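Hi R.,

Here's the input for the 2-aminohexanedioic acid complex you asked about:
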Amino acid sequence: MATPALSSTDDIRTRAESALTRCGAQLAAYKGDALTARTPITGAALFGLRADTPADVDRAVEAAGTAFRAWRTTPAPVRGALVKRFGELLTEHKQDVADLVTIEAGKIRSEALGEVQEMIDVCDFAVGLSRQLYGRTMPSERPGHRLMETWHPLGVVGVISAFNFPVAVWAWNTAIALVCGDTVVWKPSELTPLTALACTALLDRAIAETGAPAGLGQVLLGAADVGERLVDSPLVPLVSATGSTRMGRAVGPRVAARFGRSILELGGNNAAVVTPSADLDLVVNASVFAAAGTAGQRCTTLRRLIVHEDVADTVVERLTSAYRRLPIGDPFREDTLVGPLINESSYTRMRTALDRAVEDGGTLCAGGERQLAEAAPDAHYVRPAVVRMPAQTAVVREETFAPVLYVLTYRDLDEAIRLHNDVPQGLSSGIFTADQNEAERFLAPDGADCGIVNVNIGTSGAEIGGAFGGEKETGGGRESGSDAWRSYMRRATNTVNYSGQVALAQGVNFSQ
Ligand code: UN1
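And here is the predicted structure with 2-aminohexanedioic acid in place:
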C-alpha cells in the first residue's frame, strides 16, 4: 500500500494527547467549548478548550505579582537553577514539544525540533546570564563618593506570542525574565494552545522541583479580550508582544498610555541583495530556505530578493527550478520541506497578493498553486511562489505572511540599498557578495536599516546569542541574547558618600 499523503486527524489527535500527557499537561482541566485547538495538517479540529476571562487575567497577574515579591530577592544564580532545570526538561521532552509544534503550527520535523532547540539554547544563555547581570561603576566627581548602577527585577512581564513560533519566542522572554527576577503571564496565540499547555506544564515541574515560588509562570488561553486585559493591567510593567504590525499598533500606545514598557517584535519585509560577485549556489540554497522554509511564515522570512541585473535571469531560473522541486506536504514526513499554511485566510491573503503583483506587471515565475486540496480539503498547502517585479509596488512593500518571494533588479549598490530600505518594516536583511567593500557598505550606518543585517546568509534563522528585533514598523524591541536582558530589569543609579562631608555635584556651594 502506498504511504498515505497525510496523517489522519485521529492519529494526530492521539499523538497530541500522548505528547501532552508525557509533558504533564492536564488536558482534561482545559476542555471546554470556547476555543478550538486545530491542526493545519488536515485543517481539522482536535479538541475544544475553555477560555480564560478578563477576571482570570486579573487573578493570574495577582498571583504572578505575589510570586514576584518572593522571587525578586532570590539570588540571581539561584534563579538560574530554575531555568537550568527547565532547559533540561525541554531537552528530555524535545520530541514531545516538537510534535505539538508540528501539529499546531504545521512546521516540518527539522524546524519543529529547531524551535525547541532554540528554547534550550536560550535557557543555557539565561543560566550563564544569571551570574552576569552586571552594573557599571563610574568614577564620581566628588571625593569620598562612589557612583554605580544596580539592576533590579522589574515585576510581572506580560508575554503575547504568535502562532508561527508558538513556544521559542515565549522561551526567549521567559528564560531571560526569570533570571532577571521577573515573573511571567503568557497569552499564547489562540491557534497554538496545546503547545503552550505542554511548555507551561514543563515549567511548572521545574518550579516545583527547584522549590521556586509557584505562580512564577502563568498561561492564559483566550482571544483578544484576554490579551487586552493583560496589556492594560497597571500591575504589568513590561509587555513583550510578537505579532503583526496591526497588533503592535494596538498594544504599543495602550502600554505607553499607562507608562508601561513594551518590547514589540512585529512585521518584517526582509530583503537580501544579490551582487554580481555572489556565489550563486549559496544564494539559491540560502534563499530557498529563507523564503519557502516554514511555508514563508517567519517574521524573518525572505520576502524580497534585490538582484543585480547581470545575474537576475540566472538567479530567477535557478530559484524557479528549485521551487518546482520543493517537496510539499505532511510536515511529519521526513522528506517534506514545506508544510501547510496556518489557515484559509492565510491562503486567501497569499492569492490576493499574487493577483495584485501580477496586476502591477509582475511575472509569476513559479508556484502559487494550492496543493493536496483533494486529500485535505480543509487544509491549505501551497507551492511557494517566485514573482519577478518591474518595481517595488505597494504589494511588495507590505508583509504577506506566506511564501511569496518578489525578485527586483538593480544596477548599482546605492540603488539596491535604497530599494532595500524603502519599506515600512525593518527586521532582517542580507547581502550576498564576495566583495568586502560591498559587504561593509551594506553594514555601514547608511547601509541596511534593519535590526539584523547578514552577509552571505539569508534573513531567517538567527541564533539566540544576538539581540533579536528590528526597526521602524517592526517595533524597535530587542529580545533574546546580547544585552536584551536590560529591558527586563530596572536600573538604579546609586551614589554613596563615605566622606563624612556634604559635597555637591557640579561644584555647587550651598554652605551657610
Ligand atoms: C519569528 O518568526 O517570530 O530568526 C521569530 C529566526 C528565528 C526566530 C523567528 N530564530 O528566524
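One thing worth noting: Residues 160 and 187 are 5 Å apart (CA to CA).

Cheers,
M.
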